[in-house]
Amino acid sequence: MISDKITSALNQQINLEYASAYTYLSMSSFFLAQNLHGFAHWLRIQAQEELLHGMKIYDFVSERDGVVQLSAIPAPPTKWGGPLAVFHDARENEKQVSESIYNLVDLSLKERDHATNNFLQWFVSEQVEEEAGVNKVIDTLKLVGTDGNGLFLIDRDLSQRVPSTPPPANNTPSQ
After folding, report:
1. Those residues with Cβ within 8 angstroms of residue 16's Cβ, 6 or more apart along the chain or in another chain
2. Which residues contact 66 (CB under 8 A, 6 or more apart)?
3. pLDDT per residue over 4-59, tens digit each?
């Protein structure tokens, strides 16, 4: 059985994962309006991953006889100053998610909830990948600046992103 304290914290993480998905969908829409379909595609896949993360936590809470309590998701921003500004916000979003995961790990250790701690290790590794992916795009955008040809090439490259394999249904950590 999972404690109320851990359940509450995991419910907050579910909300954060879905809020992240909303933000990434909004970012995707921003790029669609600018006819940058590769950027939009990359961010839509990012949104899908956040939804999968939320469901992974949802399933874990349910499997441990906890009660999932969904809460309101705040409306995301809809406008940015350009591609670099979008990805700076994406990086801040990933840092926030990482910090929340680290706080959950700390709580699981404090509560001696080894099952939750084990479960969360997949997310710790995943966040390293998430932050690195966003940083890679930021570094590339910094190289080209606002050059249209450079943005065209980045857009083309980002359109090649494929979704990662969804987490296993039984919540065992994997890579």
Report:
1. 96, 97, 100
2. 1, 2, 6, 7, 10
3. 999 999 999 999 999 999 999 999 999 999 999 999 999 999 999 999 999 999 99
